[in-house]
């Protein structure tokens, strides 16, 4: 008996190394056990700095991939990035029109964002079953990114109306956090037939982070580390300001990654002559375990206004590495709740600079046994609750429980 067909539509996919690409590649591999998996995606390398990096991630041979080409534009330039996203969205939408047929299952990413609008039109006559896996909530995420000043302008309201309609046309929305479910619900509840909404978090890979490599810090200082995308919505500026204004003798702050604010950190370190803040470039996924092992505490941060708009996947990698998490963001977001509910670190309000400074001031005197205990709990959480096979099985169950509208 032939397997049922499922289409995965995402700009970012193997061999690209971004978190979204990795997640959708792992989903494709898992679903290939039960489905005939076909993928529509963007070009191989979203970040040209990653070309030539080696990764142990593989794609199963039975998965068929249809790629679009991309113009060679700078993703860190807002105008050029917008043009690039629009062109990729159009090309991916055209592939969907050609390849996907009535009644087939589609699992759609929220990147690139304009594709959601095109899919709204395509689905109206193709009549496929549409599941959207929500990693980014557009256009609300443009406000903390400072693309829009607030949600009061006519342009923003018009864009929001279009995207709310696009989300509402889905049969099923899969969100990656409890706070995100709250935000998404407000976007679709006014539609005549709102889509079902499920929470399926990202996952960890504890089997890929051996305990022998989980603790490599041989210095007497406590090393805090931010490893990942150094972007506009990651609360980087608030983190730097609070750290600089604190008594951080005996503490180091390391940054590893690339992104729009990489040069800002370089200038910041030079401007204030900060010897206990270090900045390095990007890293490949197969280097990740060693990178995470070289710290005592992993930092996960989000800017004010990001409530319900994103759940950093780096949080789950830190669980695998057995690291306590310092979450800096808005209270009661998914990672804030995970950290507080399980006693695996600290959750601080990104808007409360005094709270951040007070934390850094006392950190050098913390008992190392507390860090070890938190790290052990984090590793246990990765093994039991956020194991990859457990999460992917839940994802498949949620997809199969939905009937077409």
How do you describe this structure in short?
The chain has 405 residues and is of the alpha/beta class.
Question: How would you characterize this protein structure?
Answer:
By secondary structure, the chain is α/β, with parallel strands linked by helices. It has two domains: 4-203 and 388-400, 3-Layer(aba) Sandwich (Rossmann fold), CATH 3.40.50; 206-384, Rossmann fold, CATH 3.40.50.2000. Helix content is 39%, strand content 17%. It is built from 13 helices and 13 strands. It has helices at residues 19-31, 78-99, 114-126, 154-168, 178-188, 236-244, 262-272, 288-293, 314-320, 334-342, 353-363, 368-384, 388-400; strands at 4-10, 35-41, 64-67, 105-109, 129-134, 172-175, 196-199, 222-227, 251-256, 277-280, 297-301, 325-329, 345-349. A seven-stranded parallel β-sheet has the order 3-2-1-4-5-6-7, with helices on both faces. The chain has a six-stranded parallel β-sheet with strand order 10-9-8-11-12-13, with helices on both faces. Helix 2 runs parallel beside helix 3. The longest helix is centred in the first third of the chain and has 22 residues, at 78-99. The relative contact order is 0.12. The model is unreliable at 48-56 (pLDDT under 50).
DSSP helix count? 13
Instruction: Using the coordinates shown, work out and report the CATH topology of the largest domain.
Output: Rossmann fold
Into which percentage range does the β-strand content fall?
15-25%
Task: Determine the fraction of residues in helical runs and give it as a percent range.
Answer: 25-40%
Give me the CATH architecture of the largest domain, please: 3-Layer(aba) Sandwich
The CATH homologous superfamily name of the largest domain equals: Glycogen Phosphorylase B
Q: Write down the overall geometry.
A: globular
């Amino acid at each position: 008996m032939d397997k049922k067909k499922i289409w995965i539509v995402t700009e970012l996919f193997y061999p690209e190394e971004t978190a979204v690409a990795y997640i959708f590649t792992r989903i494709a591999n898992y679903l290939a056990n039960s489905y005939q998996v076909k993928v529509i995606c963007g070009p191989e390398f979203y970040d040209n700095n990653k070309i030539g990096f080696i990764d142990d991630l593989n794609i199963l041979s039975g998965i068929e991939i249809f790629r679009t080409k991309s113009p060679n534009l700078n993703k860190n330039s807002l105008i050029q990035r917008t043009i690039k996203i629009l062109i990729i969205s159009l090309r991916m939408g055209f592939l969907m029109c050609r390849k996907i047929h009535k009644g087939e299952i589609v699992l759609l990413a929220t990147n690139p964002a304009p594709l959601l609008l095109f899919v709204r039109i395509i689905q109206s006559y193709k009549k496929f079953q549409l599941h959207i896996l929500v990693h980014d909530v557009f256009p609300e995420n443009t406000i903390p990114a400072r693309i829009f000043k607030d949600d009061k302008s006519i342009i923003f309201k018009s864009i929001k109306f279009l995207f709310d309609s696009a989300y509402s046309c889905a049969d099923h929305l899969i969100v990656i956090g409890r706070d995100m479910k709250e935000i998404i619900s407000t976007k679709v509840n006014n539609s005549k037939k709102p889509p079902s909404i499920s929470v399926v978090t990202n996952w960890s890979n504890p089997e890929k982070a051996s305990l022998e490599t989980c603790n490599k810090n041989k210095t007497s200082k406590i090393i805090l580390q931010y490893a990942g995308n150094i972007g506009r919505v990651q609360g980087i500026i608030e983190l730097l300001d609070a750290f600089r204004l604190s008594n951080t003798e005996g503490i180091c702050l390391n940054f590893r990654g690339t992104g729009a604010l990489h040069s800002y950190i370089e200038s910041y370190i030079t401007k204030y002559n900060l010897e206990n803040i270090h900045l390095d470039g990007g890293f490949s996924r197969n280097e990740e375990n060693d990178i995470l092992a070289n710290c005592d505490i992993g930092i996960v941060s989000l800017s004010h206004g990001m409530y319900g708009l994103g759940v950093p996947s780096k949080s789950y990698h830190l669980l695998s590495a057995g690291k306590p998490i310092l979450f800096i963001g808005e209270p009661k977001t998914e990672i804030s709740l995970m950290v507080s509910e399980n006693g695996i670190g600290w959750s601080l309000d990104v808007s409360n600079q005094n709270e951040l400074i007070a934390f850094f001031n006392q950190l050098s005197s913390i008992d190392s046994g507390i860090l070890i205990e938190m790290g052990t709990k984090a590793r246990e959480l990765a093994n039991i609750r956020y194991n990859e096979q457990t999460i992917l099985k839940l994802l498949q169950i949620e997809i199969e429980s939905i009937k077409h509208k």
